[in-house]
# Entry
Amino acid sequence: MLVTVLGAGAGGGLPQWNCACRNCESARAGLLPRMTQSSVAVSSNGVDWVVLNASPDIRDQIEHCQALRPPALRGSPIRGVVLTNADVDHVAGLLTLREKTPFAIHATAETLSVLAANTVFGVLDPALVDRRAITLGAAFSPVDGLTVTAFAVPGKVALYLEGAAPETKMIGEQTIALGISDGVSRLYYVPGCADIPDWLVEKLSDGDLLLFDGTVWADDEMAVTGTGGKTGGRMGHIAMSGDTGSLARLASLKDCRKVYVHINNTNPVLQPDGPERAEVSALGWTVAHDGLEFRL
# Structure
């Protein structure tokens, strides 16, 4: 299995257009690598690819990934896009993929209903772009050689769908994770997750590679950095640090490579010489960057 991190950043990427925090300024100065928004490409043969979440940056991501460029005058090696939720940073890139090339969109019925309710997504010609509903727990094959099984993880609806008091740890079709296998190796992709119950730790225990939600280091990170008032939990993302954070909760996973993706621009783990990076490295985690590749 071939896995490429097209975009390692959370919504807004790095640098974020309206932010002058330490990380954003470091990226502008060339001291940190820039990150586009969350997306991953997977293939079993290097020819046929499925993209996990269509980032608003997908055009540039394709241009920077040789394997995803057009193989002929017109066309694409991208056979499908699998959506894990309806967040803007995961669906907006679909609008870029509108130029009359066939592929399939795979998403839960709930996420497909969000797309159907917004007529702008009608630019994706239904004669060429099939919309296929994912059934949780039922395996499907979005591309030759790969089998995907989706399952719900704690999370919330997309920001633009929130009511006055959104539930941030819902279990249902609004936030899913993906288990992907080529018959030999298994990848788990969990870019958004608000909590890690015991059953989820057990679920992930047979993975060879885990790409997991690394949005914030601390739950109060936005307030501490002066960049916003929401906690990580309020945004539907578990923190890395703390007794209930992902570092502690996933410490028992010893037999897979663990990689943080969907990293917010405020996260101090992006600083390569900082104590946070040293801690995650010591605990066996890798902090993703755009273009990071794996061969399983």
In short: The chain has one domain: 2-291. The helical segments are 22-28, 58-63, 88-91, 109-117, 198-203, 221-225, 246-249, 275-282.
